């Protein structure tokens, strides 16, 4: 993988597309949340880059298991990548518990619910930003004619 890539046209999530520094997170958090959903809060700020960047904050108190936290981050990055937001910095923060320690750490039902909730969040932000959200690409057909 090319370390200088921006992730254009591929399925990776390059470092250039991530918010990684504490001060970058802080500068986005200082602003009011731009979108809220049942479990997530989205903070945004315009950036001077040709692309959007993403930061994800998933606290252990809201998702006690590492598997659950990693699933949330993975689904968030996937949807962010395919949404095609304009040049903004986005920080998605888990604000309410998604499951308990008692049940399974991650299920297909949980993943589907996360996808729906996060897709709505990003679509609402894209609409606010004046750029229509791109729907997630359908999976490739199983058989070629």
Q: Tell me the structural class.
A: alpha+beta
Written as H for each helix and E for each strand, in order along the chain, the element string is: HEEEHEH
Question: Taking Cα atoms only, what radius of gyration do you get, to the nearest Å?
Answer: 16 Å
Question: What's the oligomerization state?
Answer: single chain
The major beta sheet can be summarized as: 4 strands, mixed
* C-alpha end-to-end distance: 32 Å
Task: Indicate the low-confidence ranges by residue numbers.
Answer: 1-9, 132-140
Annotated CATH architecture: 2-Layer Sandwich
Globally, the shape reads globular
The strand count comes to: 4
Q: Note the total helix count.
A: 3
Strand content: 15-25%
> What is the residue-averaged pLDDT?
79
Instruction: Assign a percent range to the helix content.
Output: 25-40%
Assign the CATH class.
Alpha Beta
SSE layout:
Elements: H1 22-29, E1 33-36, E2 40-46, E3 53-57, H2 66-83, E4 88-94, H3 108-128
Parallel strand pairs: 3-4
Antiparallel strand pairs: 1-2, 2-4
Quick structural summary:
This protein has 145 residues and is α+β, with helices and mostly antiparallel strands. The protein has three helices and four strands; from the N terminus they run H-E-E-E-H-E-H. The protein has one domain (15-127): 2-Layer Sandwich (Ribosomal Protein S5, domain 2).
Structure keywords:
4 strands, alpha+beta, 145 residues, globular, 4-stranded mixed beta sheet, Ribosomal Protein S5, domain 2
């Amino acid at each position: 993988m090319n370390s200088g890539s921006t992730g254009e046209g591929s399925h990776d999530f390059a470092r250039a597309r991530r918010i990684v520094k504490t001060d970058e997170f802080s500068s986005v958090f200082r602003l009011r949340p731009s979108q809220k959903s049942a479990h997530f809060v989205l903070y945004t700020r315009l950036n001077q880059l040709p692309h959007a960047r993403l930061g994800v904050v998933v606290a252990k108190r809201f998702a006690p298991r590492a598997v659950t936290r990693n699933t949330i981050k993975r689904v968030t990055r996937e949807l962010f990548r395919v949404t095609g937001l304009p040049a903004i910095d986005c920080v998605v923060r888990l604000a309410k518990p998604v499951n308990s320690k008692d049940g399974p750490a991650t299920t297909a039902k949980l993943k589907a619910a996360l996808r729906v909730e996060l897709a709505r969040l990003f679509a609402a932000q894209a609409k606010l930003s004046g750029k229509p959200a791109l729907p997630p690409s359908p999976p490739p057909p199983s058989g070629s004619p």
